[in-house]
Fold these 2 entries.
Entry 1:
Amino acid sequence: MGMPSLSVPVSILDRANSREGFPESDALNAVLARAESADRLGYRRFWVAEHHAVAGIAGSAPAVLMAALAARTKNIRIGSGGVMLPNHQPLVVAEQAATLQALYPGRIDLGLGRSLGFTPAVRKALRAGPAEAEEFEAQLAELLAYLDGTAPITARPQDGGRTPVFVLATGAGVEIAARAGLGVVLGGPALFRQNSAGQTGALERYRSAFRPSDRFPRPYVLAAANVAVAGSEEEARELLLPEAHALADSRTKGVFPALSAAHSAAELSGRQQDLVRSTLETSVYGTVEQVHGRLEDLVASAGADELLVTGGAFDVEGQRESDRLLAGLF
């Protein structure tokens, strides 16, 4: 008898990581190819992110990339994970989402975040700072009104509330998502941090404060985690190491570099080794059997409705095989 299928749907978030020695256009084309493969494999969603002036990430314009992805795929839902609302006028974000929804009906998601640019210079260029981030809930309400057709002006094309909206939970994001009756995306250490009752505290706050809406009559949780599957646990770990090293660089040197072949531990400072270890501790990797068990444990502890696979790899072929092996579980 074969292994049982995972109990929830699985989706992918691709940050369009650049790779050392290759042009940035290759990173974007790799995203397109990965989405086409994910569509064939039966993944539910394929999302892209927004980062500005980051050396190791080519994905800066989610709406543009989403249009290309939707045109190249047939069934998979295409979305943002996410558009950083403090960087934009809510009307423009609503118009972009509604346009995509009109062109690809029933296939577009809108994930929203409140993160700011990585450096003061980037924040200045975006005309966005702490004040704009603090207004996220009001900006979100304005955007929803444009999508729903309840704003003082009519955004066109009219969306009629058809586009599902999710909030990336950072800081107060879980409570904001709950009050608006939207789906929530939680990842990183907060997803793995449990209270004395063995529950994910942030998600319990989300569920207890949730107000049903036309979009989501009940709480909906996407649990986001770096995932890699390979023939052995060590091979899967190797897939995740380049991004873990890049994250360690970003937190110790202030620059997130293009992914490169994994460094040896001897090349890292003690602080960097600790950061790499921390990243891997909140990742899921291993053989098909190991990943199946670990993901089911994650779904159970978080009460997740869906899994969102994150994590970039330098080894494009290895990442493609990881996606294929993971798809065998659903």
Entry 2:
Amino acid sequence: MDYATVLKQIAADVVPLVGTGEPAAYIPALASVNPAQFGMAVADVDGGLYGVGDWRTPFSAQSITKVFALALALAEGGGGLWSRVGREPSGNPFNSLVQLEYENGIPRNPFINAGALVVTDRLQTLTGDASSEVLEFLRQESQNPDLRFDADVAASEHEHGDRNAAVAHFMASYGNIDNPVPDLLDHYFWQCSIETSCADLASAARFLARHGLRADGSRLLSRSEAKQINAVMMTCGTYDAAGEFAYRVGLPGKSGVGGGIVAVVPGRCALAVWSPGLDAQGNSVAGVAALDRFTTLTGLSVF
């Protein structure tokens, strides 16, 4: 597959959409990002890395880090995590509290905020430093030791994190949070603040395309566990637009309100795309279109 040529074609095709949508206004540190940026990278299972546009420009990974936290929690603690968080689409916004009360504090899936807090709580119990575990994993898999937390973004999320705090306290009242809520929120906000590029994220997500094998050839997850994560990404990874994303793109994907999206073609490659303008569901407008074009041009999808 000539990924370099495909990426150049995609970049040309999505030009009219770059700059449309709105950056995430509810996190002030993200609201000021220039929306007229676009980058995309492909990391194939054989170690190749290809990119176009602003593919090496750092941006806030935000909810994309939930994928890596989930993988580490499964690797460290096994499938017992699934008794504390479900695997079903929520059909509600990512920060909703609506379902928690009548489902007894068990979040629908690990990619809405409530579910991600449970995953981070479990990873904190297993490792003692959940946010640093995620950062170090990303550094190793991307082979970029300079990846870092963005203190301004973390502080901004702390300042505007009342709803996440409410969700965490509510789940704690049902016994589904083990660590002190302030400590949990601290790790969650730092994790979301990790600054990466498309090149970093595509490389780091390659283990899911390789059925659980890390960059050094060691096994992080079993094939079954890697399949589980890809499946939940497919059904739950793009907030309450997961059905539309599956229909248009046909790949497991996870978006973040920083404007990034990671996607996986099992057995072939991992992709990352970034453009800060978001649609009403919190997904990158140009990013979704770029992934749609990728599957159209290459014929690569899980269907």
